[in-house]
Structures are given as structure tokens and as C-alpha cells.
């Protein structure tokens, strides 16, 4: 399994896998997926990505991610077959998880499901 990637690679992939998100958050908040919710990905401006959890047309929660501060996205196995995608930034010279997404599959699992012939490559 690939252990990390650039945010610029992760963001478009994540936006294509919104139905696979179990929860997302930061150090002080967490948003859980629900059958009544859907995830919306957009940009607030050129530097800020926006993740919204919507119930119909109403926002339930929002995450504003300043992509220029994200040094990398670290991938690791989670609980019960889930996969953690930690957005890492350098804060006062130390790596810190500033946001995270938990999905039902890893990057490679998604590639294999979309293209079974690529399974031999992973």
C-alpha cells in the first residue's frame, strides 16, 4: 500500500469517492456519515478547499482546508477494515494531523475495483 501522497493527488481522488467516506474531522471536531447526508467538495477560493456535509440543500458541517499548508497525506489501516487518510502539516517545526478522512477502502482497493486487471500491479 502506498503510505503517503501529495494533497494535490489526494483531493481529486477523494472527491470521486464521496460515498466511501465514513467520517472526517480535525483535532477538535468529527463529522460522521449518515444515509441522510451527502458530501460536497468545492473550493472557497484559490487556496482554500471546502468540504461540506449536506442534508438536502442545508449544510450540516463544513471543513475549510488551506491546501498550501498540507505537506502530505498519510495513509494507514484503521479499525474494522477502514482506512485513515491523515492530512499532515508542519506546525512549529513538528508534523501534525490537521484533518483526517476515514474511508471504507484504500487507494489501491479502489483502483482494483475499478480496473480488475490492475490488481497484479499492486
Notable features of this structure?
mainly beta, 6-stranded antiparallel beta sheet, 49% strand, disordered C terminus
Account of the 3D structure:
With 122 residues, the chain is mainly beta. It has two helices and nine strands, in the order E-H-E-E-E-E-E-E-E-E-H. It has a six-stranded antiparallel β-sheet. Strand 7 and strand 8 (83-91) form a beta hairpin. The radius of gyration is 15 Å and the shape is globular. 18% of the residues are buried. Residues 112-122 have low confidence and may be disordered.
User: How many H/I helical runs?
Assistant: 2
Order of helices and strands: EHEEEEEEEEH
- Decide which structural class fits the backbone: mainly beta
Q: State the end-to-end distance.
A: 8 Å
The residue-averaged pLDDT reads 87
| Rg over alpha carbons | 15 Å
Helicity range of the residues?
10-25%
What is the overall silhouette? globular
Largest pleated sheet: 6 strands, antiparallel
Spatial strand arrangement across the major sheet: 1-7-8-9-2-3
* Strand proportion: over 45%
Low-confidence parts: 112-122
Q: How many strands? A: 9
Write the layout of secondary structure elements.
Blueprint: E1 4-5, H1 7-15, E2 21-26, E3 29-32, E4 38-43, E5 48-55, E6 58-66, E7 72-77, E8 83-91, E9 94-103, H2 107-114
Antiparallel strand pairs: 1-7, 2-3, 2-9, 4-5, 5-6, 7-8, 8-9
